[in-house]
């Protein structure tokens, strides 16, 4: 076997092909609702979530099982369906083929099932595992037997390729076989073995939790045992292997899945190993020991994976030496280094510490966090994986604390800098996510400003697939006597709390409006709390219980908090939440030079942008100015970009004069013309062909008689 869609059953299903298709198809929403109700009453699945904090001693919040929650209708149900019917099948075709690179094919060559030579990036194994994780996660909803069978066949090939000592890396193994050269396990960090194996560990734990099968988990355990053996005696050479550390999250998750204490000990050794790096640099976050760090530095994917892994270890150990840097770095990121969209990693290339007084210690960084407040828009790198990494990190910070500020970041990422990484056709992807694109660009840039089906660094697309496939798992959480509602979206939850079954549904058109209705379908006799996240961007949130205003003992629904309703619940109880979400003009701290005298629009969790198809012909993005009193009207447009709320308004334009050959010129006030414009959500820009786009737009300043005043 192979990943042929006919076997994999990943092509767009024919009408009526499966119950799942009907459950989520737009063709029959009445049947949809009926089937969701059936699922709510009969669902018996209780496997843990992607991250399993069920037994984590320092978790304030436990995750719910992947099979306990699902999107039903609305924004996320649509995205999940796009993921299941378009993103997963098209990626299966790409990864089984050899047109662009080799992923599964490298395993097949090594297994003697195909002819060929090793080809592709050394991190392709890890990205293939991420894809398998995403495909496995969809099983929690579909229980698709054909997909399960195909995954079993693939896992069989992976197991066949794995060496008896547990080592597994097709790039290294194939090159060893081909050239008999100096290629050897764990000799060169650019072979990305721990990154690859880290993704294997996470993918296997998800597959195990969703299917209950231990075949992939057995491969992961052997790989973990191999890592345990190789990293038994820490050395400076081994310390260099800690690059793009997905293996911190992976080994902790295998510890949670198996309860094997050696794996937790290994996770501790992995983190401690970083201190042995000699002459490290910011790019790999090993310039100084992690415990002494207080600022996000270097490659943003590596950084956010490190922080997420350290947070995972904190959840198991409660080690305050991990929490202190995590808390300080988090404050640094959200108050000085993160874009309005949640984008992480301002720089394509740079130096760190930039401008330090000791020049000899400065090293090169790439795809990296910049200086504080260094947030360029056109040249922003903001790799999709870094933005996903920030969500992974903040999710774990939330699980450790129960604090809403971390879920605010998860939500910001999901609606903006994460979803922007994929096109609405489900087959094209961004590697970097800038906040401004002009034609021409001021400088040539390495990565495309249009979404493409393949990039040589194919880490982001499968990362996006698994994130969307698992997105429902972030929507709810549990603690001893509380159910936490973290994300809003049409969904159903069927779980257990203190031995009693709880079933509820959520109906909403969020994020297009802030009205949410939660209905208790089943519950026991014990009192418990329903905790509703009140996002930090809203004021005036109102909660009603069974149509009556609910103030829970006088506690107001404060922004960036969880509003708690504690009571003995009855089936049929209704909770209505109203989160006012007017469009809001945003400005940046004046220390962000690139955003000086500019504004951006945010409505609810959604950041907006202006794209050239929504300007009159001939008007450039650089011509658009925002009058300080500009009014915006929110309007749902069913036909545009898969159905979005657009913001209509009247901006001003100035006529563009020819700047060719000029860097400066004398300023002359020019006539301004009103022009109707339409803002769209940032995440769906560049779905109408190549275009100019900007999130930040200059203020027109004081307007008087149509003249632009200095
Ligand atoms: Zn990536």
Number of strands: 27
Oligomer: single chain
- Class based on secondary structure composition and strand pairing: alpha+beta
**Main beta sheet, described?**
10 strands, antiparallel
Model regions low in confidence, pLDDT < 50 over at least 5 residues: 1-45
Bound ligand species: zinc ion
Helix content: 25-40%
State the helix count: 18
CA-based gyration radius: 25 Å
The amount of beta strand, in percent, is 15-25%
Brief overview, please?
The chain is an alpha+beta fold and 710 residues long. 34% of the residues lie in helices and 18% in strands.
Description:
It contains 18 helices and 27 strands. The chain is of the alpha+beta class and 710 residues long. α5 (104-110) crosses α7. The protein is globular. The termini are far apart. Residues 383-385, 459-460, 463 line the site of zinc ion (ZN).
How would you summarize the topology of this molecule?
Layout: H1 5-8, H2 19-24, H3 29-42, E1 62-63, E2 69-71, H4 75-96, H5 104-110, H6 124-142, H7 145-161, H8 170-179, H9 193-211, H10 215-230, H11 236-239, H12 246-258, H13 261-273, E3 298-299, H14 300-317, H15 320-337, E4 347-352, E5 363-369, H16 384-401, H17 404-418, E6 436-437, H18 460-469, E7 476-479, E8 482-485, E9 491-497, E10 500-508, E11 515-522, E12 528-534, E13 542-545, E14 548-549, E15 561-567, E16 574-578, E17 583-586, E18 598-603, E19 606-611, E20 624-625, E21 633-637, E22 644-654, E23 672-681, E24 693-694, E25 697-698, E26 703-704, E27 707-708
Parallel strand pairs: 8-12
Antiparallel strand pairs: 1-7, 2-9, 3-5, 4-5, 6-24, 7-8, 9-10, 10-11, 11-16, 12-15, 13-14, 13-16, 17-18, 18-19, 18-25, 19-23, 19-24, 20-22, 21-22, 22-23, 26-27
Helix pairs in contact: 4-6, 4-18, 5-7, 5-8, 6-9, 6-18, 9-10, 9-12, 12-13, 12-14, 14-15, 14-16, 16-17
Bound molecules: zinc ion (ZN).
The site of zinc ion has 6 residues, from helix 16 and helix 18.
